[in-house]
């Protein structure tokens, strides 16, 4: 019995996920409207700019340079993130539209166009005894390139018509709201980098706070548009199953490709975790920039669900990788 409880504990949602669910509940019961929604929208835009400024300031150039030489690994991760995922999303369309609303499928497809996570990819790679410097570089490159690639993919494949901005407007909005603060943070890293590194635990609240603000305003608008009349509990479960299938396919293919191409065990762990993640921290702000407010709640619902599923599944997988590495006497030490 204790072992069963221990196994179930691995799948327990983290504190932030619980707060995220509470935010959705508050938005359902007390949605913001009118002038309050407009003010919160403006505050959210500023906080998102601050978020990407801090991302730029936190990114160590030394870590990036140290991992950049591993180009085969990074190319495989980027292909998984921006080629494999979108192709799978498009292939899912005939079946997905039978069980999901068009808006939820649009959100699922948007999820497939997003960059990889940074923090969780690196943390899981370290837990699984993978190549941590390469994970830092690969995840960071994915997020940086996603500023350009995601809006292009969204404009080409996800949206047709009024629900999003044109490609030029989308890229310009992403550049102004996300890339410019990011570059400013990188340029100021020599000045504020030490302070940022010392206060990383505190600064995570900026990350989480920006996501919660966007989620609250997005779901407030969606609730006003009748979100929970359109999405039944059964459909929510179905969406979860679709997300699980999508994640399982990507995990299997990245694991197969890394072994087929002759990568080391440490690189294999990095490829699996960096190539299978989708970023909630980047996805929610990007959705706010790319999509109309009325459709935002339905768009980010698949992203939120996939985020929790990927964390729970990959946390268990990371422990399996670590046990495998520990059982192999020839396993090389991994840089922390």
UniProtKB/TrEMBL annotation:
<dbReference type="InterPro" id="IPR016833">
    <property type="entry name" value="Put_Na-Bile_cotransptr"/>
</dbReference>
<keyword id="KW-0812">Transmembrane</keyword>
<feature type="transmembrane region" description="Helical">
    <location>
        <begin position="73"/>
        <end position="92"/>
    </location>
</feature>
<keyword id="KW-0472">Membrane</keyword>
<feature type="transmembrane region" description="Helical">
    <location>
        <begin position="104"/>
        <end position="127"/>
    </location>
</feature>
<feature type="transmembrane region" description="Helical">
    <location>
        <begin position="134"/>
        <end position="158"/>
    </location>
</feature>
<feature type="transmembrane region" description="Helical">
    <location>
        <begin position="170"/>
        <end position="188"/>
    </location>
</feature>
<feature type="transmembrane region" description="Helical">
    <location>
        <begin position="209"/>
        <end position="228"/>
    </location>
</feature>
<keyword id="KW-1133">Transmembrane helix</keyword>
<dbReference type="InterPro" id="IPR038770">
    <property type="entry name" value="Na+/solute_symporter_sf"/>
</dbReference>
<feature type="transmembrane region" description="Helical">
    <location>
        <begin position="234"/>
        <end position="256"/>
    </location>
</feature>
<feature type="transmembrane region" description="Helical">
    <location>
        <begin position="20"/>
        <end position="53"/>
    </location>
</feature>
<dbReference type="Pfam" id="PF13593">
    <property type="entry name" value="SBF_like"/>
</dbReference>
<dbReference type="GO" id="GO:0005886">
    <property type="term" value="C:plasma membrane"/>
</dbReference>
<protein>
    <submittedName>
        <fullName>Bile acid:sodium symporter</fullName>
    </submittedName>
</protein>
